[in-house]
Design brief:
alpha/beta; about 30% strand
Length: about 325
C-alpha cells in the first residue's frame, strides 16, 4: 500500500503465562496502517484484537515480531504523544467531573487552559454530552462513560486514534453521533484504527478491513474490494419450446426452479451479458434481482467452519 505507514505490525506474537501454561493469543499477525486511513480490526471474542492493540500502545511486549508506530518502537513517549487511545474498558475516578477529566487529559497532551475552556463544551456537545461538564462521573451510564472516553481520546486532535471496541455500550443515537464525529476527523486526514463488534459501523467508516481469527489474520483488503464480491445477481427465465440456453448462460450452469431456469453470478458484466444473450435467444425473462450480503454475513462465513456452531476460544485471547 502506498503512502507513509503510521503503524507497522510484523509477524507479531503475544503470549500469556509461562512454561507449560503459555497461551498464544496472537500468532504471527502482520498488517500496516497508512497515514489518513481508517482501518477496521474485526474478529470474534478471543481472536487477539485487544492483545494486538495493547501491544501497539506499549502495554504488552511481543514474544516475537515487532510493532512500530510513527517509525518508533511501540510504546515510546514520542509515539504515544501523537496518539489518542480508548481502551476496551475505561475506568475513571467516580468523584471527578466530566470537565475535570477532559482538562486532565487535555493538559497532559499539552493543551493550554484557554484552549481547553473553548474546546471542552464543543466536544461534549458533539458527543451528546452537552451540559454535562459539571456532572460527576459516578452518575454517568455506561454509554455516557463511553462517549466521555471517546472525548478524552480526541480532545488534543491526535494524528492517530486507536479505539478498542469503539461503540461498546452506545445506543443507536450514540453510534450515530460518534459516526459523525469520526467522519469529520477522517476528512481532516487523521488516521483511525479501531476494533468493533458493530460491523455496520466498519462498513460505513473504514477504507480497509483486517479480519483476525484465533490469533491470525485471515483476510485484509480495501473495503471496496471486500464488499464487491458480496453482491449476487440473479435472473429467472424460460426458454421458448424447451430450447437450450445460449452458451453464455449455459456456462453459468442454470438451476431448474420449478418450470423455469435460474442463474446467479457475482459479476455485473457477466450478468448483463447473460441478459443480452437470453433476449437474443427469445427467452422469457420472468424476474431479475440482486442481493448484497453484509460484512457481518461474510465475516461469519469466513471464520466459522461449516457445521461448527461456535469457534473454540481461549480466555486469554482478547
Amino acid at each position: 500500500m502506498g503512502g507513509e505507514q503510521i503503524v507497522e505490525v510484523e509477524d507479531l506474537v503475544v503470549e500469556y503465562g509461562r512454561g507449560r501454561n503459555v497461551v498464544r493469543a496472537v500468532d504471527g499477525v502482520s498488517f500496516s496502517v497508512a497515514r489518513g486511513e481508517c482501518v477496521g480490526f474485526i474478529g470474534a471474542n478471543g481472536a487477539g484484537k485487544s492483545s494486538t492493540i495493547k501491544t501497539m500502545m506499549g502495554f504488552l511486549f511481543p514474544a516475537a515480531g515487532s510493532v512500530t508506530v510513527f517509525g518508533e518502537k511501540a510504546g515510546t513517549t514520542d509515539s504515544r504523544r501523537r496518539m489518542g487511545y480508548l481502551p476496551e474498558v475505561a475506568l475513571y475516578y467516580p468523584f471527578m467531573k466530566a470537565r475535570e477529566l477532559l482538562e486532565l487529559y487535555g493538559g497532559l497532551a499539552g493543551l493550554s487552559r484557554a484552549a481547553l475552556r473553548q474546546r471542552i463544551p464543543t466536544l461534549l456537545a458533539e458527543l451528546g454530552l452537552e451540559g454535562r461538564g459539571e456532572s460527576l462521573l459516578k452518575n454517568f451510564s455506561k454509554g455516557m462513560q463511553q462517549r466521555l472516553g471517546i472525548a478524552q481520546a480526541i480532545i488534543a486532535d491526535p494524528e492517530l486514534l486507536v479505539f478498542d471496541e469503539l461503540s461498546s455500550g452506545l445506543d443507536p443515537l450514540g453510534r450515530f453521533d460518534l459516526r459523525q464525529v469520526l467522519l469529520e476527523i477522517k476528512q481532516r486526514g487523521r488516521t483511525i484504527f479501531f476494533s468493533s463488534h458493530e460491523l455496520s459501523e466498519v462498513e460505513s467508516l473504514c477504507d480497509r478491513v483486517v479480519i483476525v481469527d484465533r490469533g491470525r489474520v485471515v483476510k485484509q483488503a480495501p473495503m471496496a474490494e471486500m464488499m464487491g464480491p458480496l453482491t449476487e445477481f440473479e435472473v429467472l427465465f424460460r426458454m421458448a419450446d424447451g430450447a437450450a440456453p445460449p452458451p453464455e448462460v449455459a456456462a453459468l450452469q442454470p438451476d431448474r426452479d420449478g418450470e423455469s431456469l435460474r442463474v446467479v453470478t457475482r459479476d455485473a458484466a457477466v450478468f448483463a451479458g447473460a441478459l443480452e444473450a437470453l433476449a437474443a435467444a427469445g427467452a422469457r425473462i420472468i424476474s431479475t434481482s440482486n442481493r448484497s450480503r453484509s460484512l457481518e454475513e461474510y465475516f461469519i462465513n469466513l471464520v466459522r467452519p461449516a457445521g461448527n456452531a461456535s469457534a473454540t476460544e481461549s480466555p486469554a485471547q482478547r
